[in-house]
Amino acid sequence: MKKHKMENHSHSSDLPEEVETGNPEPAETAANADPEVWDNPGEVGESAPADAEAVAAPPEELLKAEVADLKDKLLRKEADYQNYRKRMTREVGDARRIGLCETIVPFLHLFDLYAMAMKAADQSDNVAALKQGMLMIQSEYQKALDELGVKQFSAEGAKFDPALHDAVSYEASATVPEGMVLKQWNCGYKLGDRLLRPARVVVSSGPEAKGKDEA
Predict the structure, then answer these.
(1) Is Cell wall biogenesis/degradation among this UniProt entry's keywords (predicted)?
(2) pLDDT tens, 109-157?
């Protein structure tokens, strides 16, 4: 009986003691992890390389896209410039026609007056009436020029100025000094500071030179 108890005691002493630790077993850690990650382990870390490949296009493709964009911008600029030129040409033409109309309209009345004067001359011998009609036409003509800003200037008694006067001829004069305007054939006209027509004049060449015999 004692022998049997001793065998049981020796058998129980051979069993290893159970060791407790604070860390969970690997199986328990895996069980607590995200199920989606463990169900699809191949998807982890693969999205970033895929996006990088989609963004990083070959240099040749980027260059072609840039050239196409610049070409499109150039064509648009060229179209805008052509439209601008056409618009400016049209506006300049319109402004010119408007200017011509404003210039011509005041003179239409003058042609009417001339026509009336010519008709009156055929029907009457009254010189005084004809002269009165011509003076009226001259007055209307001056009025039209004033409305356009055109000013008339005279060169009589002035020193010859090639910038304002057109010398038709030179004549000797004992009374008018050399280089002075002796006669005026036509007056001059200016629009602001711009010369429209120079005055046509005869310039004095001074006293007539005496011959050797007279000297």
Answers:
(1) no
(2) 888 888 888 888 788 788 888 888 888 888 888 888 998 899 999 999 8
Q: For the residues 68-92, what does the mean pLDDT come to?
A: 93
Asked if 204 contacts 176 with a C-beta cutoff of 8 angstroms, the reply is yes
What is the residue extent of each domain of the chain?
Answer: 66-148, 150-209
Region for 166 from its dihedrals, namely left if φ exceeds 0, alpha if ψ lies in -120 to 50, beta otherwise:
beta
- Identify the CATH homologous superfamily for domain 150-209: Head domain of nucleotide exchange factor GrpE (2.30.22.10)
Asked if residue 156 lies in contact with residue 184, where contact means CB atoms within 8 angstroms, the answer is: yes
Question: How, if at all, do strands 194-197 and 188-191 pair?
Answer: antiparallel
Query: Does 66-148 carry CATH code 3.90.20.20?
Result: yes
Q: pLDDT for 25-77, tens place per residue? A: 444 444 454 544 444 444 444 444 545 555 566 888 888 889 999 999 999 99
Q: Is 206 left (phi over 0), alpha (psi -120 to 50) or beta?
A: left
**Both tokens assigned to 134:** 């011509």
210, pLDDT greater than 80: no
> Can you say how many angstroms the Cα of residue 209 is from the centroid of all Cα atoms in its chain?
63
Q: Name the pairing type of β-strands 199-204 and 165-171.
A: parallel
